Amino acid sequence: MKRALSIIAFLSLLHASPLWASSAGQRILNVGHSMIRSSQIVAGSCWDYIDAIYKRAGYPQKKRRTVYKSGKHKGPYASTDLIQSGDWLYYLNRSYNNIEHSGIFVRWVDKSKRLAEMISYKGQNSRTPARYKVYDLSNVYSIMRPNGGGVPYQSQRPRRQVLAKRTRPTPVTRPTLVTRPTQARRQPVSRRPSRQFAKTTASPAGQRILGTGRSMVNSRAIIRGACWDYVEEVYKRAGYSQNRRKNVHMGIKAGPYFNPNYLKPGDWLYYINHSYKEAEHCGIFVGWVNQSKRIAKILSYGGENRRAPGRYRNYDISHTYYVVRPI
Predict the structure, then answer these.
(1) 307 vs 60, which has greater pLDDT?
(2) Which of 50, 74, 214, 322 lies 20 to 30 A from 30 at CA?
(3) Angle at which helices 46-56 and 23-37 pack, to 10 degrees?
(4) Contact yes or no for 284/269 (Cβ under 8 A)
(5) What is the dihedral of CA 17, 18, 21, 26, to 10 degrees?
(6) Are 251 and 234 in contact (CB under 8 A)?
(7) Per-residue model confidence (pLDDT) at position 124
(8) Can you tell me the distance from the alpha carbon of 198 to that of 312, in angstroms, rounded to the nearest whole number?
(9) Angle at 223 between CA 307 and CA 39, to 5 degrees
(10) Are 130 and 121 in contact (CB under 8 A)?
(11) CA 65 → CA 45, 141, 286, distances in Å?
(12) Is it the case that residue 72 has pLDDT exceeding 80?
């Protein structure tokens, strides 16, 4: 029987189910997410797509291990406590004739009902890119995991620090002095977006990202591909490949969204482009133009074979759903 979740129920459950992954699992999820956002097609089946993710993340056959294996239709099936983010699962697809399927486990949506968010690829020459989809994992008969430990990693919104309420001091009555009123001198207000803000508040890693990006903008470098390919190239040239990045927030286009107040210059953002058909877009956060209105200066690339170099542009980033940070 096919199980369906409304998008509202799905997102509400996402809020209550933070993502935990080892450093190896995080790398798998990063590569998988990048391939989804760039709509990459891999010739073959679901197996071929996940195999490509593992290989690109640096985990070929000799760097994988089988954690659990049983009969496809007889079981016994794997316990939910055995599954970790980044695992390669084989299971019966209960939403489609109970056929065999495989995918990468992202997180639990409803663990009690065994509903999980998966990176799934249709394959079968459909020419359709992979996607995030909710599956019933009641019948998981094989679990493969990348070799590699690392400390647990949690992707969630940073919590705002609650400060103790300060009491107002008792006013002191003083004699009134009659003085000559002086007119306050007006300070000039700069209407240009402050790039100095980004330089002074960016971490050393963020400064290196911004410096590399500016060099590519000034040299009018053209990168083949989409906005993702350009930002990927900036990060690589700055020395921050996949293993030197971390996910600060992971969502989807419909949410949950990241609190922009916690952004740092040099962050790689995925957001809804309200200025162009509500399309998905990504770029590098430089600094705020108007923080109260969520208007930010972004290093952006048009892509789509436009042969136009990267540029600095103002965007409304109220709906930022994915954030990557150099480490």
Answers:
(1) 60
(2) 214
(3) 120
(4) yes
(5) 120
(6) no
(7) 64
(8) 13
(9) 100
(10) yes
(11) 21, 15, 41
(12) yes
In a 3-state reduction of DSSP, which class is residue 56?
A: helix
Residue 26 DSSP SS3 = helix
Rounded alpha-carbon distances, angstroms, from residue 112 to 9, 65, 88, 108, 162: 15, 27, 21, 9, 33
| 132: amino acid identity, one letter | Y
Alpha carbons 167 and 171: distance in angstroms, whole number = 12
Asked if 236 and 223 count as a contact pair (C-beta separation under 8 A), the reply is no
Which pLDDT tens digit goes with each residue over 288-315? Answer: 999 999 999 999 998 756 678 999 999 9
* Domains located in the chain, CATH noted: 7-154 (3.90.1720.60), 195-326 (3.90.1720.60)
Tell me what pLDDT residue 261 has.
Answer: 86
Report the distance separating Cα 115 and Cα 94, nearest Å.
11
Strand partners, 252: 255
Judge contact between 98 and 138, C-beta under 8 A.
Answer: no
Residue-wise pLDDT for 104-160, tens only, equals 999 999 999 999 999 999 876 677 889 999 999 999 999 999 986 433 333 333 333
Distance, in Å, from the CA atom of 251 to the CA atom of 242, rounded to the nearest integer, reads: 19
Question: What is the per-residue pLDDT across 246-282, written as a single tens digit (0 to 9) for each?
Answer: 988 888 878 889 988 899 999 999 999 988 888 889 9
Q: How many helices (H) and strands (E) does the chain have?
A: 6, 14
Residue 269 one-letter amino acid: L
According to the model, what pLDDT value does residue 169 have? 55
Indicate the range of 24-33, 45-54, 170-179, 238-247 predicted with least confidence. 170-179
Which helix (H) or strand (E) covers residue 57, if one does? Answer: none
| Nearest-angstrom CA–CA distance, 133 and 115 | 10
* Residue 255 DSSP symbol: B
Q: What is the pLDDT of residue 55?
A: 92
Give the closest residue to 93 by CA, choosing from 33, 128, 45. 45
